[in-house]
Amino acid sequence: MKTSVFLDHNATTPFHPELHGHVTEWLKVWGNASSIYGSGRSAKRLLRESRNGLSKALGVSPLELILNSGGSESNNLAIKGWWYSQSRDPLKSKIITSNVEHPSVAEALGWLEKNEGAEVVRIPVCRESKWDYKGYLAALDQSVGFVSIMMAQNETGFLFPIEDIVKEAHKVGAVVHSDCVQALGKIPFDLKSINLDMASFSSHKVYALKGAGALYVKKGTEINSLITGGGQERQRRAGTENLLSLASFNWAVEKRLGEEPFSSVIRDNFENNIRKSIDGLRVTGESEKRLPNTSHLMIDGIDGESLLMALDLKGFEVSTGAACSSGRPEPSQILLNMGYSKKEAQSSLRLSFGRCTTQEHIDSFSKTLIELVERLRGLSQ
After folding, report:
1. Which of 97, 118, 150, 334 could pair covalently with 179 via S-S, beta carbons 3.0-4.6 A apart?
2. pTM of the complete model
3. Is the Cα dihedral 280, 284, 289, 291 positive or negative?
4. What is the rounded CA–CA span in Å between residue 143 and residue 90?
5. Rounded distance, CA 290 to CA 275, Å?
């Protein structure tokens, strides 16, 4: 297989090269952490080390983390766990979210709306990543019990003003959850100073093994377990722990948080350079605060799927921001929610750089992109 240049780090990340040697050692710890004999104690020790390391890196108490399988489980546990908590005030059933959340948040809230009678208010992020913050403030009242708004949008890279969101929500007594999966390791933040009540994280976005995640639940915030059975995670998430992935998650988070985030200067230079050579190219939300590694483009007269396949043949792995259903390319629902037309959404291309991305990679990609856009436009004439 030829070596490809991977430029889709918001989708997942390659395993950190140094991780391989550690995995070999962790594989020797095969016991069940709930068992009291030797192999179980070894497993429990590794689990404790992983929890303590993650909590230290995130600046929270070890007992404030619920370890689980990833971002989707964390988001569902936060949302549905809050809804079914015994102490939840029935008069505070309104939930506020945005219209650009990850499907694990959007669909969990949609399920509560359809099956449990929750009132869900979706504050729009419009074209060019303009969020209706005034609409958010207007929606806050004493009936709001829960707010779930992501820290960083995974397709466009848009950064929500999460600290202000939390501050205003707490004035009406609402619990605030944020999907922080895309933010971890890319931008600095402090959960305690932001004062979030819950936050979701995932291992495979930070160069660790897949299958591990964590939900931060601030002390005093009550949620119900969605998975019943054993008493793991202080009876908040039943199931034998995925030690290997959790250990890799801890290792990667500790290492990643000590690194400088990917420079937005490099991204901005890339965008400025290709704009000079490609007419009709737009950068989504370029005037707003964005993840420093993320560049979301729309290119007039180009089908994103065709461009993606052509780039793949040239050795570049990127994303269109679109999902495929039954083999048929569909435009990104996020972009449609933002007010873009189907045609505009299908012209999109998302690049998300990572720790292994070099300037040579970016220069080579830029040259190839310019050539392919010119060729594809010529074919369509």
Report:
1. 150
2. 0.95
3. negative
4. 9
5. 18
Task: Give the strand pairing for 144-148 and 94-98.
Answer: parallel
Residue with tokens 């040259």, as numbered in its chain: 367
Q: Any idea which architecture 5-13+260-380 has in CATH?
A: Alpha-Beta Complex (3.90)
**CB-hemisphere CA count at 13 Å for 166?**
19
Contact 111, 255 (CB under 8 A): no
Q: Which of 315, 282, 311, 321 is nearest to 373 (CA)?
A: 311
Catalytic residue among 126, 180, 324, 356: 324
What is the tens place of the pLDDT at every residue in 169-212?
999 999 999 999 999 999 999 999 999 999 999 999 999 999 99
Q: How many CB atoms lie within 10 A of CB 130?
A: 15
Beta-strand runs (E) in the chain: 5-6, 65-68, 94-98, 119-123, 125-126, 130-131, 144-148, 175-179, 198-202, 213-217, 281-283, 294-299, 316-317, 323-325, 328-330, 348-352
Give the count of beta carbons closer than 10 Å to the beta carbon of residue 217: 27
Annotated catalytic, 324? yes
Do 294 and 352 contact (CB within 8 A), yes or no?
A: yes
Return the closest-CA partner of residue 213 out of 8, 58, 19.
58
Domain-wise residue ranges, the chain: 5-13+260-380, 19-256
Pick the CATH number of 19-256 from 3.40.640.10, 2.60.40.10, 1.20.120.140, 3.40.630.30: 3.40.640.10
